[in-house]
Design a protein that fits this description.
The chain is mainly beta and about 140 residues long. It is built from 3 helices and 6 strands. It is about 15% helix and about 45% strand.
Length: about 140
């Protein structure tokens, strides 16, 4: 998410609700980490609106199965600033944010009533699935 002012929910656990757009991944210390891109995200009791938010694919989100573009999900999580190194190299960029540790995920408005296919158990297999679907090479490609 690109934001020029600091959101009020930074680092506090709040409820998020958003529309699934696609899967992606980011390089991590223990290999590639699967991510989700959500659009039209609302956060907290005041329903703060965010444009696009990346979040980690935790066990709670994994249990929802393979999401389809347009599915609406909700979960709790913490909004944090990321990529401090990239921002230091390019000071003109707005601060980027991500939802960390999403828990208590629910599929609240599926795009259709078909059952979702389960995701692979291994992170590398999930990243391979993301690549085979033709999603963007990584979340960093959009920043």
């Amino acid at each position: 998410m690109h934001q020029t002012n600091v959101p009020p929910h930074l680092s506090k656990r709040v409820r998020f609700r958003g529309t699934f757009q696609r899967y992606g991944w980011q390089p991590g210390k223990r290999g590639d980490e699967p991510m989700l891109l959500l659009d039209a995200v609302t956060a907290g009791k005041k329903q703060t609106e965010l444009t696009a938010v990346w979040c980690q694919l935790t066990r709670s989100l994994w249990e929802l199965g393979e999401l389809k573009t347009g599915d609406v999900i909700q979960f709790t999580g913490r909004l944090v600033a990321v990529d401090k190194y990239q921002l230091a190299q390019h000071p003109g960029l707005p601060t980027c944010y991500q939802v960390r540790l999403p828990l208590q995920a629910q599929l609240v408005a599926p795009i259709d009533q078909l059952r979702r296919r389960p995701l692979p158990l291994d992170k590398l297999d999930i990243v391979a699935l993301i690549i085979s679907r033709g999603d963007a090479p990584s979340r960093a490609a959009f920043w």
